[in-house]
Amino acid sequence: MSGFIVRSIDPDEREECLALWCTAFPHTSRAYFERYFYGDTEYDPHYTRVGVLEGRLVSCVQIVRRVVTVGEARLTAACIANVSTLPQFTGRGYNRACLESALNVISKDTFDFSILGTGIPNYYAKFGWAQVGLPVISGQLRDVAMPPDTKLRQARFSDVEQMMAAYTLTYQRVPLSVVRSRSYWRGWLEFSEGANPDMWYVAETPAGEFLGYVRAEKDDESSKSSLDIYEAASLRPFDANLVSRLFRAAAEYTGCDDGVTCNIHVPPTSAVAHAAATLLLGLKGSHGGGMMFRIVNNDNLLMALLPEINDRWVEAGRPSVDLAIENPDGPPLSLTTDDHGLRLQLVSQPQNMVIPQASAFQLLFGLEEPSAVQLPTGTEAARALLSARCRGTYLTADDF
Length: 400
Ligand SMILES: CC(C)(COP(=O)(O)OP(=O)(O)OC[C@H]1O[C@@H](n2cnc3c(N)ncnc32)[C@H](O)[C@@H]1OP(=O)(O)O)[C@@H](O)C(=O)NCCC(=O)NCCS
Fold this sequence. Notes:
Number of helices: 11
Bound molecules: coenzyme A
Number of strands: 19
Largest sheet: 8 strands, mixed
Oligomer: single chain
Strand content: 25-35%
CATH architecture of the largest domain: 3-Layer(aba) Sandwich
Mean pLDDT: 96
Order of helices and strands: EHHEEEHEHEEEHEHEEEHEHEEHEEEEHH
Radius of gyration: 22 Å
């Protein structure tokens, strides 16, 4: 690869980089990509790894830094985005070099794990990412009508303070939800003065009191319409009644009729599952989203979650534990007990079967019903120890 190097982007190369992204992803708007440089407070030039051939940007990998919640813990995610090579330069190993450079940057920073969304999972599997589906509840809408005492309207900039408060209250302990600052709402989610944020709706009482918000989209492009509900939150207790009221209002407001397929991407807590059962016929759960997860920096992830895991271990009566979890960068991570309590270490020869990364992530972030997570024989103890306290997901508004 003579004449080719990978390095951080220079600030004056941002235009060239935007052009590269727009060429590699011709169906995505330039405004979408501009957010990475100009709408993300976490941005650092170090996070844009560019492959340069004789002075020209030909390949790129972007790292997006996001802090997510898991119960009481906060984890830092390295989100991989804008993986691209100019079409005339593909197949020469340029993107592999950028991805390896990104992993190197991640390993020197304070990241706990990495995530990405893709339609080409085989590409990333080579580099250690594992596929993990996000939970979806689907069914056919029934009895669509605006709930009594409820009004829905498009959200506007002036709603942002209440929406932020509702989001924080509803998602503060939900696994994998992004910690959203005020500038994140304005920059990344595009709640800026004069903007009419697409897909976001505010529910109010007839007196104009804020009930909550829903992020939803009706898709009329295919021959059969469908409704996707991506997010909902409230300042009131987020129980099945309220959830069902918000979802039903979204279905009516977006013009859905009975029988339209509805996909709910909100974390499937018991309130959401209950509400779905009243709103939908032919209910079924599935997994989608094309997400992949990867452990980075060896034991950072489990180290950050150790207080949570320790609480569960104490609740379970301090059973003896000997678990090993797959680590793409080296020896498996082992979680064992001795006289001093729980111990986390890297072991070259684990005594037990190794739990695949995908199963560990499903449990840690509540992405699957714990009883449905596949575990190798002899690692059953992981279910009680690693399972999040409630179901989680990565909300699509936070896509990168
Ligand atoms: C995907 C893309 C980034 C690959 O870039 P590239 O510079 O050609 O990649 P490389 O030459 O470094 O290939 C690295 C490895 O991935 C493999 N690979 C390349 N494209 C692949 C694909 N679409 N699916 C699976 N594997 C792929 C290569 O065979 C190579 O394997 P090897 O190292 O084991 O020989 C490039 O084709 C592109 O920009 N595509 C359009 C945008 C896109 O879809 N990006 C991914 C979004 S998730």
